[in-house]
Each structure stands twice: as structure tokens, then as C-alpha cells.
Amino acid sequence: MNHLAHLYLAERTGTSFAGNFLGDFVRGRLGGRFDPAIETGIRLHRRVDSYADSHPLLAEARDWFPPPYRRYAGILLDVYFDHLLIRHWRDFHDEPVDRFVQRATTRMRREWPAAAPFAGTRLAGLPDALCAYARPRGVEQGLYRVHARLARPSPLREALPLLVARDAELDLVFRRFLPDLVAFSLQEANQD
């Protein structure tokens, strides 16, 4: 799952927005490096990612991608599922997505005031970047941002046509998978 999905799950589970967002950026053991609520959010983010990686629906969808894209299929699904979440946002949330993202960003800054340097680079453009996922061009830009963070060259920048070609199948997988993911997240959040 990508950023919008993690923020959506943070709200559904009542866990830290900052922690659920930071799960992609914080590596290693936590051990008190952050506020306990943020660490709970980071742990939930990690569990959600592991759950998604092992879910049979997503395993099948990853097989739809030919080499060299298959190696990056998890990333492709994560980013495209944020696109699908926006597309179906009204089915899952009453608040318009742009207001939700703005509120989530404000809450992340409030939850983690020490994030000033990080917030300047990551959170400043976050609302626009997430809302841009509503359009294929925004998905393409998201894939490019992920590509730029990787240590080695990847085919992510050229992957949008593959995703668009599988849109109907991916949409069906997403709609079947999201309720499982929400149920899993609620269960995991109640264990911390």
C-alpha cells in the first residue's frame, strides 16, 4: 500500500498518521526512537505491507506483470491502488479526498513536531502529490518519485501503460482486497 492507503488506514484504526506515513522511510528497530504512538503507527505500516505482500489476490496480480516489471510489481500495485482508492474514495469516506489529505498532513505535523526538516521535504508537497494520483499523469509522477529513490535503475517510469492495460482487473482486485486490508489493520491496531 502507498501513502494515501496508509493514511486512510491510520484514520480507520485510530493510530498515528505520522507513524503510518513514516513506515516507508524509517528503517531498523524502533526501540524508543520516536514517540510511542508514532512507533505504533510505524509497526502497523510494516504489518500492513507484509500482509499485502503475502495476500493471495496481490500475489496473483503481481504475476500479471512481465519481466522486468514483475520484480517491481509490489511497488506498481501500491501506487496504482492509491489511484484506485481515490477513484472509489466516495465509497469509503464521506470527506472529499483533498480535504482528507490536507487534514492528514496537518495532523502529521502536529503529531511529530520534530519533523520540521523532514516535513519541509516530504510533507510540503504531499497533498498535491497524493491528490494527483486521481489522474494517470499523477500515477506516472508517483512512479517516477519511487524510481528516483531506488539505488539501481528500474523500469518504473515506463510502467504506466501496463497498469492502464490491466485497469479493470486491478480495479476488481483492489475492491476485493481493501475490505480484507481494513479488517486486518483493525485487528493489528488492537494488539498494540
Characteristic key phrases:
single chain; 192 residues; mainly alpha; 12 helices; 0% strand
Question: How is the secondary structure organized here?
Answer:
Blueprint (H helix, E strand, L loop, with lengths): L2 H11 L3 H6 L13 H19 L1 H7 L10 H15 L1 H4 L4 H15 L4 H8 L2 H7 L3 H14 L10 H6 L1 H23 L3
Helix pairs in contact: 3-12, 5-10, 7-9, 9-10
Quaternary structure classification: single chain
* Beginning-to-end CA distance, first to last residue: 20 Å
Question: Given the C-alpha coordinates, what overall shape results?
Answer: globular
Poorly predicted spans: none
Beta-strand content? under 5%
Q: How many β-strand stretches?
A: 0
Strand count, sense and barrel status of the largest sheet are: none
Radius of gyration: 16 Å
Q: Helical element count? A: 12
Structural class: mainly alpha
**Which range best describes the helical content: under 10%, 10-25%, 25-40%, 40-55%, 55-70% or over 70%?**
over 70%
Task: Look at the structure and give the mean pLDDT.
Answer: 90
The helix/strand series, from N terminus to C terminus, equals HHHHHHHHHHHH
Describe the structure.
The chain is an all-alpha fold and 192 residues long. The chain has twelve helices and no strands. It has helices at residues 3-13, 17-22, 36-54, 56-62, 73-87, 89-92, 97-111, 116-123, 126-132, 136-149, 160-165, 167-189. Helix 3 (36-54) crosses helix 12 (167-189) and helix 9 (126-132) packs across helix 10 (136-149). It is globular, with a radius of gyration of 16 Å.
